[in-house]
Design a protein that fits this description.
Strand content: 15-25%
Strand order of the largest sheet: 4-8-9-7-6-5
Length: about 260
Amino acid sequence: MLGWIIIGIIAAPLIIMSIFLLNGRGAFLISGFNTMSNEERAAYNKKALCKAVGRLLLILTALMLMWPLSFELGVAWLFWLSFALFMVVTFGFVIYANTGNRFKIPVDPNSPAAIIVRKPMSRGKKVAIVIAIILSVQLCIGIGIMIYQGEIDPRVSVVNSSIKINALYGTEISFSNISEIILVPESMKELGIGTRTNGYASSGQALKGNFNSSERGAQLLFVYSSSSPTIHIKRTIGTDVFISFRDSDTTASIYQMISSAFLSR
């Protein structure tokens, strides 16, 4: 639910902007165009440019709505596909709009007075633009990886007399630091999620990291909050760990694996 709210807050102004742009108005909203001189703007077909950017915003908004949908459905590939398309469409449009004089008004080559001469872009400005694009791509990729790692189920295995949890905020728990491993029938939502102190909880379902419960105190979660049952690993030192998967059969299977290894150590 939280994921829908966050995307909704971002999407709402984009939709409003696209409505203005699709009507051929709101050119001042277009980055780059709004910083041109009046002479430079006069060389462009403002209405065509506005409509193109308006269509771009609608496409990007639709792709963004796929992100929380993919989390709700538990379909990781849908997130990655929509995220990749978001990046391709964004940078593809930037390249398309800035090459081939796409939105410039045709001028009579025999009329020098109608030709607007633009100053060539300085090398420093070109470098700054390239750096900005690279940093933007890296930021988007970083956010995408964090969201993906936060949403996918953890990978749990037994390695060298310890339980290894590969996930965002993953950890390794030695058998010597475990007092008991139990499978409780309730979901984490029913047990009490508590307050996030240092963890991931953007979609409201996939929870990873450190949370604090009023009943149990500090706890380390790798759960899908509405899924049951839940594995509870009680530690002698440190916070207790809770694990659950979207598929209840997977949770039961992982419990059998780690509890058998713990009891036979």
